[in-house]
Amino acid sequence: MTSPDVLHENARRIEAFYAAFAALDTKGMATLYAPDVRFEDPVFALAGREAVMAMWSMLCEAVEAKGRDVWSLEASAIRADAHEGSAHWEARYRFSATGRLVHNRIDATFVFRDGLVVRHIDQFDVWRWSRQALGTPGLLLGWSGVVRRKIREQAGARLAAWRPRPR
């Protein structure tokens, strides 16, 4: 029988993912995703390691460029078995588009296959995020479907413009 203090190897993988993310180490993050991974959150819906890692790379690059001084990430409540896992994580950062400080609280779920993440879903309160990231417009309209669609469209356009750039 396994001791409750011993983490399943997939829980250790989740820990490694967030440790790499906290260090803005996208190469380390990428090693934990399967080639056919699917990622979803209120802003992005992406398929394939290349697309998912382009998103994480874009976000990490923005932190490096405009917010390293306030960046922090803490993961907790990490649980996993052979097939699925979950974690709670909190990120503090400067939103590059507005310069406003954000403290985002995210709940993540993972599905594993052969020791790699094949599905990663992050859930967070978009209205809470938009109030912090966008200020008054987010406070007044961040709850609306129109603003949420606009946020998704703008983020998708930023990612599309960012992806072809050589690194």
Description:
It is a single chain. By secondary structure, this protein is α+β, with helices and mostly antiparallel strands. The chain has a single domain, classed as Nuclear Transport Factor 2, Chain: A (Roll). 42% of the residues lie in helices and 31% in strands. It is built from six helices and six strands; from the N terminus they run ααββαββββααα. It has helices at residues 9-22, 26-30, 49-66, 126-134, 136-141, 145-162, and strands at residues 33-40, 45-47, 72-80, 84-94, 101-113, 116-123. Strands 2-1-6-5-4-3 form a six-stranded mixed beta sheet. A hairpin with a 2-residue loop joins strand 5 and strand 6 (116-123).
Which secondary structure elements does this structure contain, and how are they paired or packed?
Blueprint: H1 9-22, H2 26-30, E1 33-40, E2 45-47, H3 49-66, E3 72-80, E4 84-94, E5 101-113, E6 116-123, H4 126-134, H5 136-141, H6 145-162
Parallel strand pairs: 1-6
Antiparallel strand pairs: 1-2, 3-4, 4-5, 5-6
Main beta-sheet strand count, sense and barrel state: 6 strands, mixed
Please report the first level of CATH classification, the CATH class.
Answer: Alpha Beta
Number of domains: 1
Helix/sheet category: alpha+beta
What's the tally of helices? Answer: 6
CATH fold node name: Nuclear Transport Factor 2, Chain: A
Summed over residues and divided by their number, the pLDDT gives a mean of 88
Unreliable residue stretches: none
Cα Rg: 16 Å
End-to-end CA span: 47 Å
What's the β-strand tally?
6
Choose one word for the global shape.
globular
The CATH architecture name reads Roll
Q: What is the helical fraction, as a range of percent?
A: 40-55%
Going across the biggest sheet, name each strand in turn.
2-1-6-5-4-3
